[in-house]
Amino acid sequence: MSLAMATNTPFNGGVKQPQETAETHIHDIMSHDASKGAIVHSFDPDATPQQKAAAAGMQRDQLKSIVQQDGSAHGGKGAFFSLLRHPNQTSASEPSIVGASIPTITVEDTGEATNEEQERSGSVTPSALTVPGEYPSGLAPAIPDWYKVGWRAVANIDAPPLEEGEEKDNHILQLFLTEQYYGQWYHNAALIFFAVFASHFLTRFNFGWGWLILLLSICNTYYVTSMTRVRRCARDDIQRELIKTRLASEHESADWMNNFLDRFWLLYEPVLSATVVASVDQILSTTTPAFLDSLRLTTFTLGTKAPHIDKVRTFPRTADDIVMMDWGISFTPNDTSDMTPRQAAQKVNPKIVLSVRLGKGLATASIPVLLEDITFSGIMRIRLKLMANFPHVQIVDISFLEKPVIDYVLKPVGGESLGFDIAHIPGLQTFIRDMVHDTLSPMMYDPNVFTVNLEQLLSGVPLDTAIGVIQVTVEAARGLKANKIGGGSPDPYVSISINNREELARTKYKPSTYNPTWMETKFIVVNSLQESLVLSLLDYNEHRKDTPLGAATFELQKLLEDATQEGLELPVLKDGKDKGMIRFNVNYFPVLKPESVNGKENLPQTNVGIVRLTIHQAKELDATKSLSGDLNPLVKVFLGNSTSYTHKSQIIKHTNNPIWESPTEFICADKSSSVITIKVVDERDFLRDPVVGYMSVRLVDLLQTDPALNREWWPLSGCNSGKIRLSCEWKPLHMAGALSSADQYVPPIGVVRLWLRKATDVKNVEATFGGKSDPYVRVLVNSVTLGRTEVINNNLNPEWDQIIYIPVHSLRESMFMEVMDYQHLTKDRSLGSVELLVSDIACESPVDSQHRYESTGAKEVAEPIRTDSNSYKGQLHYRAEFVSALNVKHVWFDADENEIQKAAHQVQRNHANGISTRSSSSNGEERYVTVDHPMTEAETHSPPHQTDSSESVRANGNGAANTDEEASSPTEKDSANEGIQLSKEELFKHQSGIIIFNVIGGHLQKKARLDVLLDDAYWPAFSTLKSRGTNARWAHVGEGFLKELDFGRVWLRLNESGDFDKDDITAEWKGDAKAFLDATLDRRSSFSLTHADGHSSTVEIETRYVPVPVKLLARESINNQGILRIYLLAGKDLRSADRSGTSDPFAVFTLHGTKVFTSQTKKKTLNPDWSEMFEVNVPSREAADFSVEVFDWNQLEQSKSLGHGTINLRDIEPFEATEQMIELSSEKHGAKGHVAIRLIFQPEIIAKNRKATSTFTSASRAMTHIGSLPFGAGKGVVRGIGHVFKRDFGGSHEKLDVPHAVPEAAAGQASRPIGGPPSEPGTLRVTMMSAKDVSMTDTKAYAVIRVGDKEFKTKHGTKSSSPEWNESFHFTASAHMPKLHLWIYDHKTLGKDKLLAEGEVDIWRHIQVGQSTAAEVTVELQGGGLASLRLEFDAGNNPLAQDASVVSLERSQPQTSSSRFSIRGRRPGFNEDN
Known about the structure:
- The chain is of the alpha+beta class.
């Protein structure tokens, strides 16, 4: 940059010629510099430096775009632009920028955008930044998802590990080379090789010594650098380990922290003192003793010297998310050794002055209590539990490793000048210090810790909120070692507390015994399971303090593993010595979490739970009973008719508008009948405290308060004026019978027949990932899912065409049809909902006594789907129709009491039996409900009026509300008894109806929930909650609709998953519905569910049956689904496809577009004779799309179709052989040829399988076989059982026996068992045909088959999700080889092949020697998917018959063992069969 010489005067026309010459010369110099790209400034030399700097800073206004005169911009050569100003245009305040070269950034390979385009797109960068590095005015753009931010993202530490074989090929090669060839040893070897090779090269070609010296210098440089790095890394490693050792064994100073505290304390101490005074004053005002007028903090300061951290020790060998340190802390304000004289002169000592006012009214006096010269020192252990979310510190545990040293000066009388230090009194200071240590010891002296949960503290949830209830049953104590002071046996009782804090419950005392038995149950509300339950045994003394006998401690964390801890026996310890044994049980009932329905969280509707009642404030209290006009109000809370209060608030003195903000939590055994009474009392010291006002309200009414609508104010009764503000929260408990208990059950009035046809244009929540939603519909009634459809994959216009039956119990109910997107790994997402009111399709029936309700007609609509954002997206097409149930008597169960009610009744029985108690019980007072709704906004602002308790609702002793109307009106059971009476035989005549299950409990191997499924459902009809322990007690009532009683099935499953949408089945039981009802209809029965390991669990169930006369469609009948056996007989007059005039035909059968069977290929014939048989599961004959297509096999090219034909399954009769001639046709050649088949259909329930890919396989497995059928069950049922006709094509008929119903098929195999193993070895031909759904993506799949020690592998083809092989292999098979093992792998060009799925086949379950030597088997694979195989056994071809030694070897050695010559060895998951 060139700077022009400053001129003394500005240029004008009146200047002499020499001056003009100088100006011209200067101008030429500036032009010359500007032509070289320099920025030239000119300014007034008389201007001040500030003006010159401001003028120079204005150069940015002169910047313009660099554009050549021809309009083009040069990127590579650069561009120059000159801004030349004539001197006469230059002012003192504005510089001249001559020839300013603007730096330009050009990117040639990117698209250009004009300023106008950028302005339209909103991407123009603001040019208002005046200071380099200034923050932008707008919001910073969001960081894209593909950015890697933070070390965790860069290291991919949170990414799930890739499965074996799924790495990229280039990554595999890189990892392979890195592991095999790279490393420090290889670098050194390369250096040596390079030195030898280079020196040989230089010598060979006669290079001089200079080149050798250069080579040596290169090698020396590399060696020195390498060794320097090695030494540095070694030094760092050694130093790091030494630091770890020193951190754990030595203390380090924290002078930098103390320096910071010294400066920060002077700023923070006034704020801290003000905060303490504001908080403590409020507490002192509410806890003032009766004989004092007031307590106030008049002076509070902690001085000018800050607390110090003397030493710090860190423990490095802890978990990654744990930080643990020992801090030596001290607060010594009187120590001036580390202060300067100026600091010591300005030092302020800590001083706390408490003003105690004695007397009443005008006769009062204030006495100051002075506390000063406070010193404190100790060693504190701090443990931090870290977490990923804010505030990144989850839990802080604080404890003192030793008793801290505490000193102070306390002057209770005389003040600062005349006060007397009580430490001068002998023994008093030691007594006070011991009291402080005894108070703090159970809280924060090692090993006890004081825990601060920062996550909960900052979440807004109250710290004292309850998380559940523990039930403690104190049974007995044995061998107590204690004596009374005067002699005699102790009178022991148990006091229950948490961490030795205040007493929460106590048992009755047992007089004069060393082996007391209590058998008492106590319920304790807990807010954390990180603490200890302490059972303290004490000896009851009538006239003096009770004597401790010892204590037993139980860690509440054990309840997280098993919520039912029974038969606990713990030693009673005192001073580390054994003082006996105590036996007790502990159960934990957690608070149920809200359920998400349509994006909203709803609490489960339970009758037992925890009530959190908060008493906020009162206004306009009636002060007519007070002489001074001021009240000292407090609040007492009563339950039912109890005379003892459950909660008492603090006292607020001298006010008629008190603010308490007093919360309390208590257990409620029956929400629907509980009554709460709240009394506002005026506290008077020595006189009887009068009741200022009161209110009694039902709990259900109190729970309706809405703070958002200002509906929290309730009027007080028994007074002239007054109102109180309350808020109430209900927390349902996970207790037996809490959800759907017997006493809450209402019998059904009928069912709604929902025909969910389809949905159109549903919301796509997978669009971000390029996919589509996987929709299904779930039907909810009262936030409980009662039915669901199947899942349709990747479809925004799904067609379900599915009929489900939903039991309903009232015309006021509404059905919530919610369209959901199925997610396998995460929770399903809502796509919208449609609501249907039962009153729209049903009404009361005034004339029919058997049916109290009747249908108003079917409703068929296409209703818009409402999304969470109150908008509409898509339509749901459905048909709804109500079918009334028979009005049957006695549709209820005897309700069992819950644990709380049992404990209460046990106490009542003990009182009735005269069992001794510590305090005598008093009679309860009768209370009436005074109010049933909060005050409205108008009532809140209206003048107060006197209220009276004149309602006829009263509360009993248990808190239940009784009305006079209820006493005279019939109960619900009496109204239900008005129905018709049916015997068991009459009930069983009705084929369709509702089964009502009362799942009582059971003994389980593992904690699980019980799923109940009916017929062919793959969604449970209902599920219980997951049991809290292995001794389950559910008391759950659920329902399910049964379409055909004679053919229905009941399926009980134990599911370990806590999520209702996921499955983890551990045990199951299946049985006929009619036999199940017969066993449980009038009594409780137990059922044994078998686990995979052979163990069993038992559940106890009771049922009721309500008939519903439903007319089923043909597609809904059990006869519509089952197993279809197809005999492929022959083909006739097929079309020729080869030049020889023949074809090589084979047949392919498809069901709903899925290949289910492929026949053998018959060479060079137009009339093939196949004579093959296979079986397929048909979920619906009415809707079955079953077809056969014949192909011509070609060795080199793709097989050609010879014709296609459709097989009609609607008209075939069950158990009756039907022959059909299927005409083949094609679009190109028309009708040509026939295929002869024989069909035999056996009705069975087909249970659909839910896959991990959110799909459901079309070829479902048979759930069970029907063991017996009644006469008249269907046309052709009886006459079809005897024989099945088999005929050769064009020949005569031959009769074959149809095997009777056989035991249930093994899970996952669709073929039926038809025989046993052969007595001699034979040849087994296995044809591996195809597989399906083995992978979500296309793979190069191949199959490996093993029978005995022989193994074969198919070829891998092109990438496909449904591979087909059609390859055959021969094995030697005998009775010693009962199983065929199958593995399917994904072929990898580089790396190890990935195992996709595996399975096994029971060979002799499908092959019967002498009768059926071939079988088509469909195997359900572990890992997902299905595999199709064909088994053919030739007993006459014994490959081992010619070699006796081989036969002997085969008989002496099990054939299931792996051959030591096998290349692959034993397969994963391969077990011995014997």
